[in-house]
From TrEMBL:
<protein>
    <submittedName>
        <fullName>DUF934 domain-containing protein</fullName>
    </submittedName>
</protein>
<dbReference type="Pfam" id="PF06073">
    <property type="entry name" value="DUF934"/>
</dbReference>
<dbReference type="InterPro" id="IPR008318">
    <property type="entry name" value="UCP030820"/>
</dbReference>
Length: 125
């Protein structure tokens, strides 16, 4: 599940090396040396480039640190964010974290593999 951070409660952390990746940046070409967290921006909910960036970072680059969604983060996108590799998300202003957690209770398993569990359901032990 994604760590959900209410709007206004995301604080800078000491000794955490953060890379803020622009939407048009190639996730396959950026240096990840010493990076603890990558922040990917959703400038508006209809812009899904950050989903692709997260998946590339997790699956192709093998990035094991925190991938955080920022910007226009809506509750109904959180499950897909998790499946593409996000590990934390800063909710849009006015969104209730309890509503966000209920999304994950609704969708407990998926038939297809994803960035978190690459095997499809039928191949899992």
């Amino acid at each position: 599940m994604i760590t959900i951070i209410p709007a206004g409660q995301a604080q800078p952390e000491e000794n955490v090396n953060v890379l803020v990746l622009a939407n048009d940046a190639d996730a396959l070409e950026v240096s990840l040396d010493g990076v603890d967290r990558v922040e990917l921006q959703f400038p508006k909910f209809t812009d899904g480039r950050a989903f692709t960036q997260a998946r590339l970072l997790r699956q192709r680059r093998g990035f094991a640190g925190d991938i955080r969604a920022t910007g226009d983060v809506l509750i109904d996108q959180l499950v897909q964010m998790y499946r593409t590799g996000f590990s934390s998300a800063v909710l849009k202003e006015g969104k209730d974290p309890a509503d966000a957690e209920r999304q994950f209770a609704r969708y407990r398993a998926f038939y297809q593999g994803d960035a978190v569990v690459p095997q499809p359901l039928f191949a899992r032990g």
